[in-house]
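Session log. Operator J.P. requested a structure for one protein chain; no other inputs attached. Running the standard single-chain path with token output.
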Amino acid sequence: MTEWSTIPDLVGEHVRLTALGDEHVDELLEAADSDEVFRWLSFRRPRDHEQMAAVVEQMTSRRPVQLPWAQVDQRTGRAVGMTSYYDIDEQSRTVAIGFTWLGSRAWRTGINTEAKLLLLTRAFDELGCVRVVWHTDCRNERSQAAIQRLGATYEGSLRKHRLRADGSWRDTYTYSMLDDEWPAARDALVARLRRD
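Structure written below.
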């Protein structure tokens, strides 16, 4: 096991990212407050304890290929969403950030921005990544705008890349940030958090 396969706590003012586990199921179920949150994800909105437990089990069973965190609101101490590293390639020094959702009550609170800042800081400054990647549904304009606000660059489309929850095929838009782009992106994210 290397540092690349660990899931340390990442702590900010708005959010604490901690290894996703069964203890988060009920809080995540409460946070899963809107169908819109799950509209573009590969799974439907969990409606009961068993469905959310299955989502958590699916995410945690992929370790170390996928490293999932619970997003915990620092004000309440309760989990309000999840996020992950995946497509982890230590040799090529790259990770993807995704499988992310955040309950709608936590939108526009600084949690998402700070979570991405924490994940990017770990990737570039601690792991020594040269590239961080995001994938999103071609129809998910909210996600595309959020990724672009991070300072990522659109790279292209992967056609019929993944199945949607409704069984249709999605084209996936790919974005990336490189290590030499990170300092300017970090400064912009820090400044944005100060305004939030």
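Operator note: The domain at 3-195 is CATH 3.40.630.30 (Aminopeptidase).
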